[in-house]
Amino acid sequence: MKLRLITALLVAIIGGGFVSQTSVAVQDSAEKKDDKQDKEEKEASLIERMEGAIRLMRLGDEEEGVEMIREISEDHPDDIRVALTLIQALQQVGLSKAQEERSLGNEYFYESAKLARKIKDNEDFPPPAIELVAQCVYNEACTFAIDGKNDEALKSLKESFELGFSDIDLAETDSDFGDLLEADEFKAIIKEAVKKAAAKKIEELKKSVAEFEPYEFDFDLQDVDGDNIKKVDFKGKVLIVDLWGTWCPPCRREIPSFIKLKKNYRGKLDVVGIAYERADDDEEALENVQEFMEDHDMNYRCALGTKELKAQIPDMRGYPTTLFIDATGKVRMELVGFRTYAELELVFKEIMKEDG
Q1: What is the pLDDT of residue 14?
Q2: Of 222, 262, 338, 344, which has fewest CB within 10 angstroms of its CB?
Q3: How far apart, in whole angstroms, are the C-alpha atoms of residue 69 and residue 172?
Q4: Is this structure's pTM higher than 0.70?
Q5: Between the CA of residue 302 and those of 13, 286, 325, what are the distances in Å?
Q6: Which of 179, 205, 231 is the last residue of a domain?
Protein backbone atom coordinates (compact mmCIF):
# COMPACT_ATOMS: atom_id res chain seq x y z
CA MET A 1 0.00 0.00 0.00
CA LYS A 2 1.24 3.42 -0.84
CA LEU A 3 -0.10 6.93 -0.48
CA ARG A 4 1.69 10.01 -1.69
CA LEU A 5 -0.26 13.15 -2.56
CA ILE A 6 0.91 14.57 -5.84
CA THR A 7 1.89 18.07 -4.78
CA ALA A 8 3.48 18.88 -8.14
CA LEU A 9 0.06 19.01 -9.79
CA LEU A 10 -1.68 22.31 -10.30
CA VAL A 11 -4.89 20.81 -9.01
CA ALA A 12 -6.52 20.57 -5.60
CA ILE A 13 -4.15 19.33 -2.91
CA ILE A 14 -5.41 18.08 0.43
CA GLY A 15 -4.15 20.48 3.05
CA GLY A 16 -3.06 23.02 0.51
CA GLY A 17 -6.24 24.57 -0.83
CA PHE A 18 -8.07 24.37 -4.13
CA VAL A 19 -5.56 25.43 -6.78
CA SER A 20 -5.91 25.28 -10.52
CA GLN A 21 -4.65 26.55 -13.83
CA THR A 22 -7.93 25.63 -15.46
CA SER A 23 -10.07 28.35 -13.91
CA VAL A 24 -12.81 29.78 -16.08
CA ALA A 25 -11.23 32.13 -18.58
CA VAL A 26 -13.17 35.31 -19.14
CA GLN A 27 -12.68 37.30 -22.32
CA ASP A 28 -14.28 40.70 -22.15
CA SER A 29 -14.30 41.05 -25.90
CA ALA A 30 -16.19 37.77 -26.38
CA GLU A 31 -18.68 37.72 -23.56
CA LYS A 32 -21.29 40.02 -22.19
CA LYS A 33 -20.77 41.62 -18.82
CA ASP A 34 -23.57 39.67 -17.13
CA ASP A 35 -22.23 36.34 -18.44
CA LYS A 36 -18.82 37.25 -17.14
CA GLN A 37 -20.18 38.08 -13.71
CA ASP A 38 -22.22 34.88 -13.64
CA LYS A 39 -19.18 32.73 -14.42
CA GLU A 40 -17.04 34.50 -11.88
CA GLU A 41 -19.68 33.99 -9.20
CA LYS A 42 -20.02 30.28 -10.02
CA GLU A 43 -16.27 29.84 -9.93
CA ALA A 44 -16.01 31.66 -6.61
CA SER A 45 -18.80 29.49 -5.19
CA LEU A 46 -17.07 26.31 -6.38
CA ILE A 47 -13.75 27.33 -4.85
CA GLU A 48 -15.44 28.27 -1.57
CA ARG A 49 -17.17 24.87 -1.36
CA MET A 50 -14.02 22.97 -2.21
CA GLU A 51 -11.93 24.83 0.30
CA GLY A 52 -14.60 24.18 2.93
CA ALA A 53 -14.43 20.43 2.25
CA ILE A 54 -10.65 20.43 2.34
CA ARG A 55 -10.71 22.40 5.58
CA LEU A 56 -12.87 19.69 7.15
CA MET A 57 -10.37 17.05 6.13
CA ARG A 58 -7.48 19.05 7.52
CA LEU A 59 -9.34 19.29 10.84
CA GLY A 60 -9.76 15.51 10.93
CA ASP A 61 -13.36 15.13 9.73
CA GLU A 62 -12.29 13.23 6.65
CA GLU A 63 -15.48 11.30 5.94
CA GLU A 64 -17.65 14.43 5.97
CA GLY A 65 -15.07 16.18 3.80
CA VAL A 66 -15.19 13.37 1.24
CA GLU A 67 -18.96 13.40 1.24
CA MET A 68 -18.96 17.14 0.53
CA ILE A 69 -16.56 16.65 -2.38
CA ARG A 70 -18.80 13.86 -3.74
CA GLU A 71 -21.73 16.29 -3.72
CA ILE A 72 -19.66 18.95 -5.45
CA SER A 73 -18.58 16.37 -8.03
CA GLU A 74 -22.23 15.58 -8.77
CA ASP A 75 -22.87 19.30 -9.33
CA HIS A 76 -19.72 19.67 -11.48
CA PRO A 77 -19.30 16.30 -13.23
CA ASP A 78 -17.03 17.71 -15.93
CA ASP A 79 -14.63 19.65 -13.71
CA ILE A 80 -11.33 17.79 -13.69
CA ARG A 81 -10.17 19.70 -10.63
CA VAL A 82 -13.03 18.40 -8.55
CA ALA A 83 -12.50 14.84 -9.78
CA LEU A 84 -8.80 14.89 -8.93
CA THR A 85 -9.53 16.34 -5.52
CA LEU A 86 -12.06 13.61 -4.84
CA ILE A 87 -9.58 10.91 -5.89
CA GLN A 88 -6.93 12.24 -3.53
CA ALA A 89 -9.45 12.62 -0.72
CA LEU A 90 -10.60 9.02 -1.18
CA GLN A 91 -7.02 7.82 -1.03
CA GLN A 92 -6.43 9.88 2.11
CA VAL A 93 -9.48 8.47 3.89
CA GLY A 94 -8.71 4.96 2.66
CA LEU A 95 -5.28 5.10 4.24
CA SER A 96 -6.65 6.48 7.52
CA LYS A 97 -9.29 3.77 7.68
CA ALA A 98 -6.78 1.05 6.78
CA GLN A 99 -4.61 2.08 9.69
CA GLU A 100 -7.53 1.34 12.02
CA GLU A 101 -8.36 -1.93 10.30
CA ARG A 102 -7.11 -2.84 6.84
CA SER A 103 -10.48 -3.82 5.39
CA LEU A 104 -12.12 -0.51 6.41
CA GLY A 105 -10.22 1.33 3.68
CA ASN A 106 -11.18 -1.03 0.86
CA GLU A 107 -14.26 0.78 -0.44
CA TYR A 108 -12.34 4.05 -0.69
CA PHE A 109 -9.46 2.48 -2.63
CA TYR A 110 -11.86 0.76 -5.02
CA GLU A 111 -13.85 3.95 -5.60
CA SER A 112 -10.76 6.09 -6.20
CA ALA A 113 -9.32 3.61 -8.73
CA LYS A 114 -12.61 3.46 -10.62
CA LEU A 115 -12.82 7.25 -10.80
CA ALA A 116 -9.14 7.58 -11.76
CA ARG A 117 -9.62 5.29 -14.75
CA LYS A 118 -12.70 7.23 -15.77
CA ILE A 119 -11.04 10.65 -15.89
CA LYS A 120 -7.58 9.82 -17.28
CA ASP A 121 -8.77 10.19 -20.88
CA ASN A 122 -10.51 13.51 -20.22
CA GLU A 123 -9.22 16.19 -22.60
CA ASP A 124 -8.50 18.49 -19.63
CA PHE A 125 -6.57 15.82 -17.72
CA PRO A 126 -3.14 17.23 -16.71
CA PRO A 127 -0.42 14.74 -17.82
CA PRO A 128 1.47 14.81 -14.48
CA ALA A 129 -1.67 13.48 -12.79
CA ILE A 130 -1.12 10.08 -14.40
CA GLU A 131 1.15 9.37 -11.43
CA LEU A 132 -1.88 9.70 -9.17
CA VAL A 133 -3.89 7.37 -11.40
CA ALA A 134 -1.11 4.77 -11.33
CA GLN A 135 -0.92 5.03 -7.54
CA CYS A 136 -4.68 4.49 -7.22
CA VAL A 137 -4.57 1.39 -9.40
CA TYR A 138 -1.61 0.05 -7.42
CA ASN A 139 -3.51 0.51 -4.16
CA GLU A 140 -6.47 -1.21 -5.78
CA ALA A 141 -4.20 -4.18 -6.57
CA CYS A 142 -3.19 -4.33 -2.91
CA THR A 143 -6.83 -4.20 -1.87
CA PHE A 144 -7.82 -7.01 -4.24
CA ALA A 145 -5.02 -9.12 -2.76
CA ILE A 146 -6.22 -8.44 0.79
CA ASP A 147 -9.72 -9.50 -0.31
CA GLY A 148 -8.34 -12.76 -1.75
CA LYS A 149 -9.09 -11.73 -5.35
CA ASN A 150 -5.71 -12.74 -6.71
CA ASP A 151 -6.54 -12.62 -10.42
CA GLU A 152 -7.89 -9.09 -10.10
CA ALA A 153 -4.87 -8.11 -7.97
CA LEU A 154 -2.42 -9.29 -10.62
CA LYS A 155 -4.38 -7.54 -13.37
CA SER A 156 -4.39 -4.23 -11.48
CA LEU A 157 -0.73 -4.55 -10.53
CA LYS A 158 0.22 -5.00 -14.17
CA GLU A 159 -1.99 -2.05 -15.15
CA SER A 160 -0.41 0.17 -12.50
CA PHE A 161 3.05 -0.41 -13.97
CA GLU A 162 1.73 0.24 -17.48
CA LEU A 163 0.35 3.57 -16.21
CA GLY A 164 3.72 4.51 -14.77
CA PHE A 165 3.81 3.30 -11.17
CA SER A 166 7.54 3.29 -10.49
CA ASP A 167 8.10 2.00 -6.95
CA ILE A 168 9.07 -1.53 -7.95
CA ASP A 169 11.01 -2.09 -4.73
CA LEU A 170 7.82 -1.50 -2.76
CA ALA A 171 5.72 -3.76 -4.97
CA GLU A 172 8.00 -6.79 -4.80
CA THR A 173 8.05 -6.70 -0.98
CA ASP A 174 4.59 -5.28 -0.15
CA SER A 175 3.05 -7.49 2.54
CA ASP A 176 -0.43 -6.65 1.24
CA PHE A 177 0.17 -9.17 -1.57
CA GLY A 178 0.74 -12.00 0.90
CA ASP A 179 1.34 -15.35 -0.78
CA LEU A 180 1.18 -13.69 -4.20
CA LEU A 181 4.74 -12.47 -3.63
CA GLU A 182 5.94 -16.01 -4.35
CA ALA A 183 3.64 -16.65 -7.31
CA ASP A 184 5.29 -17.09 -10.71
CA GLU A 185 2.86 -14.69 -12.40
CA PHE A 186 3.57 -12.02 -9.78
CA LYS A 187 7.31 -12.43 -10.27
CA ALA A 188 6.87 -12.24 -14.04
CA ILE A 189 5.00 -8.92 -13.72
CA ILE A 190 7.76 -7.52 -11.50
CA LYS A 191 10.45 -8.75 -13.90
CA GLU A 192 8.76 -7.06 -16.85
CA ALA A 193 8.33 -3.84 -14.85
CA VAL A 194 12.02 -3.83 -13.96
CA LYS A 195 12.93 -4.34 -17.62
CA LYS A 196 10.72 -1.50 -18.81
CA ALA A 197 11.89 0.82 -16.03
CA ALA A 198 15.51 0.19 -16.99
CA ALA A 199 14.78 0.90 -20.65
CA LYS A 200 12.93 4.09 -19.73
CA LYS A 201 15.79 5.23 -17.51
CA ILE A 202 18.27 4.66 -20.34
CA GLU A 203 16.23 6.75 -22.75
CA GLU A 204 15.84 9.52 -20.19
CA LEU A 205 19.58 9.49 -19.52
CA LYS A 206 20.40 9.66 -23.22
CA LYS A 207 18.09 12.62 -23.58
CA SER A 208 19.68 14.33 -20.56
CA VAL A 209 23.15 13.93 -22.06
CA ALA A 210 22.00 15.35 -25.40
CA GLU A 211 20.30 18.35 -23.77
CA PHE A 212 22.93 19.11 -21.12
CA GLU A 213 24.43 22.59 -21.28
CA PRO A 214 28.26 22.20 -21.05
CA TYR A 215 30.21 24.34 -18.63
CA GLU A 216 33.81 24.96 -17.62
CA PHE A 217 35.40 23.23 -14.66
CA ASP A 218 39.06 23.23 -13.68
CA PHE A 219 41.23 21.89 -10.89
CA ASP A 220 44.88 22.00 -9.87
CA LEU A 221 45.40 20.12 -6.61
CA GLN A 222 47.71 17.83 -4.71
CA ASP A 223 46.56 14.22 -4.58
CA VAL A 224 46.61 12.25 -1.34
CA ASP A 225 50.19 11.14 -2.07
CA GLY A 226 51.38 14.73 -2.37
CA ASP A 227 51.71 14.76 -6.16
CA ASN A 228 50.24 17.49 -8.36
CA ILE A 229 47.05 16.60 -10.21
CA LYS A 230 45.30 18.93 -12.64
CA LYS A 231 42.68 18.72 -15.35
CA VAL A 232 45.05 19.47 -18.20
CA ASP A 233 46.86 16.20 -17.44
CA PHE A 234 43.86 14.29 -18.78
CA LYS A 235 43.31 16.17 -22.03
CA GLY A 236 42.39 13.93 -24.92
CA LYS A 237 40.25 11.45 -22.98
CA VAL A 238 36.99 11.47 -21.08
CA LEU A 239 37.54 12.29 -17.43
CA ILE A 240 35.11 11.41 -14.66
CA VAL A 241 35.43 13.65 -11.62
CA ASP A 242 33.69 12.19 -8.58
CA LEU A 243 32.95 14.59 -5.72
CA TRP A 244 32.46 12.26 -2.79
CA GLY A 245 33.25 11.52 0.87
CA THR A 246 34.13 8.43 2.85
CA TRP A 247 31.23 9.28 5.20
CA CYS A 248 28.67 9.11 2.37
CA PRO A 249 26.99 5.67 1.81
CA PRO A 250 25.91 6.25 -1.83
CA CYS A 251 29.39 7.61 -2.57
CA ARG A 252 30.95 4.44 -1.25
CA ARG A 253 28.54 2.30 -3.26
CA GLU A 254 29.67 3.95 -6.50
CA ILE A 255 33.41 3.38 -6.00
CA PRO A 256 33.46 -0.17 -7.49
CA SER A 257 31.82 1.16 -10.66
CA PHE A 258 34.51 3.81 -11.12
CA ILE A 259 37.22 1.21 -10.55
CA LYS A 260 35.58 -1.03 -13.17
CA LEU A 261 35.13 1.80 -15.67
CA LYS A 262 38.79 2.77 -15.53
CA LYS A 263 39.84 -0.85 -15.90
CA ASN A 264 37.51 -1.54 -18.83
CA TYR A 265 38.25 1.67 -20.76
CA ARG A 266 41.89 2.22 -20.02
CA GLY A 267 43.35 4.79 -22.40
CA LYS A 268 39.94 6.29 -23.24
CA LEU A 269 38.68 7.18 -19.79
CA ASP A 270 40.16 8.21 -16.48
CA VAL A 271 38.74 8.94 -13.04
CA VAL A 272 39.65 11.43 -10.35
CA GLY A 273 38.07 11.45 -6.93
CA ILE A 274 37.77 14.77 -5.08
CA ALA A 275 36.90 14.10 -1.47
CA TYR A 276 35.02 16.35 0.92
CA GLU A 277 35.51 14.85 4.36
CA ARG A 278 33.80 15.44 7.67
CA ALA A 279 36.99 15.72 9.67
CA ASP A 280 38.48 18.08 12.22
CA ASP A 281 41.37 19.02 9.94
CA ASP A 282 43.03 18.22 6.62
CA GLU A 283 45.37 15.71 8.22
CA GLU A 284 42.49 13.60 9.50
CA ALA A 285 40.66 13.97 6.18
CA LEU A 286 43.76 12.81 4.31
CA GLU A 287 44.10 9.77 6.53
CA ASN A 288 40.42 8.86 6.01
CA VAL A 289 40.77 8.94 2.23
CA GLN A 290 44.11 7.14 2.13
CA GLU A 291 42.78 4.36 4.34
CA PHE A 292 39.62 4.00 2.27
CA MET A 293 41.57 3.89 -1.00
CA GLU A 294 43.83 1.17 0.33
CA ASP A 295 41.00 -0.90 1.76
CA HIS A 296 39.05 -0.78 -1.52
CA ASP A 297 41.95 -1.16 -3.99
CA MET A 298 41.07 2.06 -5.77
CA ASN A 299 42.93 2.30 -9.08
CA TYR A 300 42.56 6.05 -9.59
CA ARG A 301 43.89 9.14 -7.88
CA CYS A 302 42.10 11.22 -5.25
CA ALA A 303 42.57 14.65 -3.74
CA LEU A 304 40.88 16.71 -1.06
CA GLY A 305 38.40 19.24 -2.38
CA THR A 306 38.15 22.97 -1.69
CA LYS A 307 35.24 25.39 -1.41
CA GLU A 308 36.51 27.27 -4.46
CA LEU A 309 36.51 24.13 -6.57
CA LYS A 310 33.01 23.13 -5.51
CA ALA A 311 31.76 26.65 -6.27
CA GLN A 312 32.44 26.01 -9.97
CA ILE A 313 29.50 23.61 -10.09
CA PRO A 314 26.23 25.46 -10.72
CA ASP A 315 23.77 24.84 -7.87
CA MET A 316 25.55 21.79 -6.52
CA ARG A 317 22.93 19.63 -4.85
CA GLY A 318 24.77 16.97 -2.89
CA TYR A 319 27.05 13.95 -2.81
CA PRO A 320 28.03 12.13 -4.80
CA THR A 321 28.19 14.54 -7.72
CA THR A 322 29.75 13.03 -10.83
CA LEU A 323 31.09 15.18 -13.64
CA PHE A 324 31.87 13.85 -17.11
CA ILE A 325 34.50 16.01 -18.79
CA ASP A 326 35.06 15.46 -22.50
CA ALA A 327 38.35 15.39 -24.40
CA THR A 328 38.23 19.17 -24.88
CA GLY A 329 37.93 19.82 -21.15
CA LYS A 330 34.26 20.81 -20.82
CA VAL A 331 31.74 19.26 -18.45
CA ARG A 332 29.31 17.41 -20.69
CA MET A 333 27.16 15.76 -18.03
CA GLU A 334 26.53 16.03 -14.32
CA LEU A 335 24.91 13.32 -12.25
CA VAL A 336 23.79 13.69 -8.64
CA GLY A 337 23.30 10.74 -6.32
CA PHE A 338 24.13 7.07 -6.67
CA ARG A 339 24.22 5.66 -10.20
CA THR A 340 24.72 2.11 -11.37
CA TYR A 341 27.66 0.98 -13.45
CA ALA A 342 25.36 0.67 -16.47
CA GLU A 343 24.21 4.28 -16.13
CA LEU A 344 27.75 5.62 -15.74
CA GLU A 345 28.96 3.57 -18.69
CA LEU A 346 26.04 4.78 -20.82
CA VAL A 347 26.90 8.44 -20.23
CA PHE A 348 30.54 7.76 -21.14
CA LYS A 349 29.51 5.99 -24.36
CA GLU A 350 27.05 8.74 -25.31
CA ILE A 351 29.78 11.37 -24.96
CA MET A 352 32.20 9.27 -26.98
CA LYS A 353 29.54 8.75 -29.66
CA GLU A 354 28.71 12.44 -29.90
CA ASP A 355 32.41 13.32 -30.16
CA GLY A 356 32.93 10.77 -32.89
Answers
A1: 37
A2: 222
A3: 34
A4: no
A5: 47, 10, 16
A6: 205
